[in-house]
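From the pipeline queue, job 12 of 40. The input is one protein chain; the requested action is below.

Action: predict structure.
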Amino acid sequence: MRRIGELFAPHKAALIVTVVLVLIGAALSVVPPLLTQRAFDDGLFPVGADGEASPPNLPVLGWLVLAMIIVFVVSTLLGVWQTWLTATVGNRVMGALRVRLFTHLQRMELSFFTRTKTGVIQSRLQNDVGGVASVLTNTVSSVLGNTVTVISAFVAMLLLNWQLTIIALVLLPVMVFAQRRVGLVRAKVAAKTQESLSEMTAITQETLSVSGILLSKSFTRQQSEIDRYADENANQIRLQVKQQMTGQWFFAMVGIFMSSVPAIVYLVAGWLIAGGADVTAGTIVAFTTVQARLLFPLMGLMRVALDLQTSSALFARIFEYLDLRPAIVDAPDAREVPADAALGRVEFEHVSFAYPDAPAGARPTLDDVSFTIEPGEYAAFVGPSGAGKTTVSYLVPRLYEASGGSVRFAGVDVRELRQESLVSQIGIVSQETYLFHATIAENLRYAKPDASDAELEAAARAANIHETIASFPDGYDTVVGERGYRLSGGEKQRIAIARVLLKDPPVLVLDEATSALDTISERVVQEALDDAARGRTTIAIAHRLSTVVAADVIFVIVEGRVVERGTHAELIAAGGVYEALYRQQLAQAPASVPASVPGSVPEASAGVAEAASVAE
């Protein structure tokens, strides 16, 4: 509750005005019953000095009716103003909470997203925050208004007749106890409901994305995906019904009690009058009116308390994410990347690394790795799958934190540098290119929002993609589709290269950027990569050795350790792991050429043949 209250702190002025309006409105709500008593006793059925009934006193009745109308009008206007204030404050608080959660998630380390479903994260942002909207918008005014109304009505009832007040409130303790029990049950059901909703969102995100729908169609699994969604949907329906029905019997009993109280009051009033008590008709009418003004706000308070208990599960889920602490943060004295001659130098000193979710006792992904890449040098990392090559590319921009040893950039330990400053010096081209569902120009400007059209064209030309873009009917305004699916793999990759060139970083990381491409596309993209790497420190993670034969230095990684290093010619001459991998790929390359093309030169092996001539 304290943390929920802190969310309203920036809106103190609006809350103060709301409180004043609520207090005035609550106070005014008990005035009409008192005016009703006077209208009955002094206006409609006045009693003369001799104790005899007199004709209606129309002037007094007229003023009392006018006063009641004025109270109703003022109360309505104040209610409209109060509703606007509470809706504005509540929605702003909810919006700020959503942005705060989104901002916090942006700061989380990469490993958080690799172990958490995207749909679950989306559900926290949308469903959980949206689920507490009514609490945020209505709680303050409802609690204050109903509390003041209840107190005012209770005082008015005591002033009218204390015996009838006891009768009206006799079951209140039982109602409060029952409400708390119901709230606990609803909170548990609400938590399960949100978990089910998260799962549904995750299923939707996974199966209705372009990649997901392509996968399900490729394996004719549409029906199984439909069944999976339908099963979770049925579970969601069951939980929603259970949540709605929990407490309905309680409120039904409260409703019966509230409806029965006026009749009981009439009976008790009859006993009191028969016993000689001074209870007038106006008192009875006013009392039953005030009693309604007491019990309905009282029931409203119980519903608010119930909503708060129910929403506590949602707030717990939201605060659970807000309480997560990023594993990688800037040090208090973090500094900018130094702009000197060492800019572009990358050093690993006895670096070890194990992924956070790795089993205890498992072999580390990297084990005592040391190397130095000088500014402007082209360094390649090769080795079997799972050897730890890509992990190297993650540690340089500090997407993951080294478990041991030191990663240095421009001569400074990356833990001493501001992350934003570090990443601004590094451009990454990965195997899986990600493009937004936007135009080509918008995707390019993601690297440099203020880039001019001329800069876009220059970057595209450097990436060998300008002519292709120009051939599209809409040119740079062509919408690429979800994840760029309207483009070929080679086109997407070259746009990604152009985007990195627009950033113009001194260090370029290429993570198997051509391994998923066909031979022709690979050759075109490789030319673009070679042009992009010129004059920059380049770290290339390669599966196809033909793409890195011209590298200044090649590091061979096996089971997390650097076992060989040198140029292509030196490693071939050494006859070690690299030479075995190279010969294996050389032997496999011709097999990829279709037999139906007699006499053709194997395009797939062109790069390898080139490499062979270099080796010779």
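Job complete. Residues 459 and 502 are 6 Å apart (CA to CA).
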